[in-house]
Amino acid sequence: MYTFLCNGIGSIINSTASQSKSIEKSPQAKSPMGTFSSTLVVPDATVPIKRKTPNKTEDDKNSTDSEPPYRPKRRSTSTQLRTPSEAGSPSSTQNVTVMVPSPSLALNKFAKADQFLGISERYFPIKSEQRTQASSRRYYYAKNTKRGGVSIAADSDANDTLSSTLSPLQDILRPSLVRDLRRLQADGPAITFSITDEKLPMLASNFGFLRDYVLKKGVERAPNEFNAGCGCPDGNCVPGKCDCQDTEVGSDEAAAPYLQNRTALSQEYVKEHSMIYECNYRCSCKGNCWMNVIQRGRKFSLDIFDTGNRGFGLRSMEPIRVGDFIDCYLGEVLTQKESDLRETATEESDLFGLDWATQESETREMYVIDGQKFGSPTRFMNHSCNPNCKIVPVSIDHGDDRLYYLGFFATRDIPPGTELTFDYNPNWDKKQKKDEDALPVSLRREAVPWPALAECTQGEGTAGPPCISPGFR
Ligand SMILES: C[S@@+](CC[C@H](N)C(=O)[O-])C[C@H]1O[C@@H](n2cnc3c(N)ncnc32)[C@H](O)[C@@H]1O
């Protein structure tokens, strides 16, 4: 079970429903299975669970198994830049606060050319011992400066107003974003963006792209030795027989989550909600079989674009077939306590509670993913109650029922250029007229002004324009 808590649009919806079919885990996979639900508000009280600590064998202690493939490779930094319209009119006498982006190679180039506003000790105050470094244009320590608090007065006799400084900023932000996105190409085809200069800072300065979760304080992966693998003969994982697959309740037959002939969700899993356990490095196949999809990474080039009325969105310029894997939802992984603090501290959060196993829990709280500031391109997927994608919880570690991945898969064929969407709350009771927790429109986060959308009337699976769930109003 997982919970999507998206403050803004998310915090106005709350519903929980059971999955239509539950699937029992194979004996090899230790974690309990649960029902699926998705809500968009603060999660229901979670029943804590107690981790069973398996007895370590000598073999386990001496284990030299390598790490699973998904590991944080880097962490982007987040900076903020306010455009003139956000900062107010850049009149010549007015004090305008500018969030100066982190000094980068490109920025240093500008500094050398003495063109860029803000590259001086005045805007990057430093300690005396750091002055030498700064004078040689090495601003390593200057990154510690709270740049958000640095106020820059628009100079009355300066020819360049704030708007004229935007151009060099875009010249820096655009290549910097390209560089940031290029790093994601290690995991699949290119991620591009189709965004005007004006809106570029909203993406480039406010968001850091990740290649894996960033585990925050109090969050841990289960030790490697807890993980288990299948023992399929000759490393040949056969559908229905591989131990990594779940067996349906009351049946010995394992449900095959993926198609064998292409890395895609099976028809059954397109319809159902159940955890998938992929083969891993501990399996006899070493994770090289068809039971390995999200670990192979993206298959499609994705484009972050300006939807015009729903902020940024995500699309692919390639045709996507039903069941295809899009990408994982990533972000900072928080303890529930930390996520509660963030929820109350800010209006903006994009939280997923990893609560698949917590219903059978006794003492542990679930982990929560926050994709607001750091994450993957799927963070820009908008809601639709007539969606073309869905989220499936996927684990690559049988010994860790607390930390797993959320994979986006296509639920129908998607033509090139179509916005990729998912239902933020698939179990929302469409008959429910009003959500008591709904926020008035004025309190919702609006990155750009969005015109009112038509209320969703279409049934699932039918094509149609973007719409808004009845409860959103
Ligand atoms: C996960 S973010 C999606 C990316 C977002 N559009 C952006 O520019 O950052 C969720 C936020 O997008 C907006 N959003 C998502 N789906 C929407 C829809 N169908 N209509 C209007 N706003 C939507 C809401 O502000 C919501 O809080």
UniProtKB/TrEMBL annotation:
InterPro entries: H3K9_Histone-Lys_N-MTase (IPR050973), Pre-SET_dom (IPR007728), SET_dom (IPR001214), SET_dom_sf (IPR046341)
Tree of life domain: Eukaryota
Keywords in alphabetical order: Chromosome, Metal-binding, Methyltransferase, S-adenosyl-L-methionine, Transferase, Zinc
Ranges annotated as biased composition (Polar residues): 77-96
GO terms, molecular function: histone methyltransferase activity; zinc ion binding
Biased composition (Basic and acidic residues): 55-70
Subcellular location(s) of the protein: Chromosome
Transmembrane stretches, start-end: none
Any one of the GO CC terms: nucleus
Boundaries of every Pre-SET domain copy: 228-297
Keyword Metal-binding found: yes
Pfam families membership: Pre-SET, SET
Domain SET: 300-425
UniProt xrefs under SMART domains: SET
Main location class: nucleus
GO biological process: methylation
Region (Disordered): 18-96
Protein name: Uncharacterized protein
Organism name: Penicillium argentinense
